[in-house]
Design a protein that fits this description.
By secondary structure, the protein is an alpha/beta fold. It is about 30% helix and about 25% strand. The strands form three sheets. Strands 3, 4, 5, 6, 7, 14 and 15 form a seven-stranded mixed β-sheet that branches. Strands 10-9-8-11-12-13 form a six-stranded parallel β-sheet, with helices on both faces. It has a two-stranded antiparallel ribbon with strand order 1-2.
Length: about 300
């Protein structure tokens, strides 16, 4: 099968398209013919070797953790998914989806409201956001601050929080305000003076927060101070800093239930996964280059 691979850690131009062995569905997994996959920040960091000490890869490696496509193999133990179903999901590891075929360990049907590219962008972002909101517990009637609400994870976290009955204040650039308002988020800008702006929007205070600003971000201490209780702040970035401040840190659980919950938000019109750039597989170097410069959510499509 055709796949993107890199044989050593380094810059995006190390990525090549080449023939690799096909993976196959095993117990409780499915295989999809991949239509699209997203390029997440962790994919960029893994390829660059920034995480080699803690998350070493067996090289050569195929980048990608999430994907969308059509089921073409169903493993033993899978009873609710069939060949021909259109799904999105996660592969259970830290690489392997930017290829003609990919095996998924967690997945959900794609809601008809999403495009293929949006579905490809939903896996890791949706599971991360769902894990963060789940960690905060019952949010009915709460006021929640989402730092980075216009981003891939932040917008999903905002949607989950609103669906849980919370009032959400979200940070973003002014150009993102119309989108945030359309979601039901009360928007404000990030940066210096955030505490004062949030206080004006929520005179009774903020009950909890999700720190999902684009990395690197130095706003976590401010978020903790705004909430006034580090135990009610969860970050999807910087576990070490979170531990120092007493905040919670989460990573995505590769759980089909979380992806089904994300899909339900999409079906209800509460969340549309963010996609800023689409590139064909042949332009994988360019896709990673754009993602490396944090110019928005990147999706790689296949014919």
């Amino acid at each position: 099968m055709h796949a993107a691979r890199y044989h050593s850690y380094g810059n995006p131009d190390l990525l090549v398209i080449e023939e690799t062995p096909e993976p196959h569905a095993g117990e409780n997994t499915i295989r999809i013919a991949v239509n699209a996959t997203s390029v997440n920040q962790i994919d960029v960091m893994l390829r660059a070797g920034n995480l080699a000490q803690v998350l070493p890869l067996e090289l050569p490696a195929v980048p990608g953790m999430d994907a969308a496509g059509v089921v073409d193999e169903v493993g033993p133990g899978v009873t609710d998914t069939h060949i021909g179903d259109v799904v999105f999901g996660l592969n259970g590891g830290i690489s392997g989806t930017t290829a003609e075929f990919a095996v998924l360990t967690a997945w959900s049907a794609v809601p008809e409201q999403w495009t293929t590219a949006q579905a490809a962008a939903a896996g890791l972002a949706g599971a991360t956001a769902a894990t963060a909101i789940e960690t905060l517990g019952d949010l009915k009637g709460a006021t929640v601050l989402i730092d980075g609400a216009s981003g891939a994870v932040g917008s999903a976290a905002a949607a989950f929080a609103i669906a849980a009955g919370a009032t959400v204040i979200g940070t973003g650039s002014r150009t993102s305000f119309p989108h945030l308002k359309a979601m039901g988020v009360i928007p404000t800008t990030y940066g210096p003076g955030l505490a004062e702006r949030v206080a004006a929007l929520a005179p009774s205070g903020v009950d909890a927060a999700v720190h999902a600003a684009v990395a690197p971000s130095d706003s976590l201490p401010d978020i903790v101070a705004i909430v006034g209780n580090a135990a009610r702040v969860v970050t999807v970035l910087g576990a070490q800093e979170a531990a120092q401040l007493g905040a919670m840190s989460v990573v995505a659980r590769h759980d089909s239930a979380l992806l089904r919950a994300a899909a339900a938000l999409g079906k209800a019109g509460l969340w549309v996964p963010r996609v800023d750039h689409e590139f064909p597989l042949a332009d994988i170097v360019r896709a990673h280059t754009v993602a490396e410069h944090r110019s928005g959510k990147v999706v790689v499509t296949q014919p």
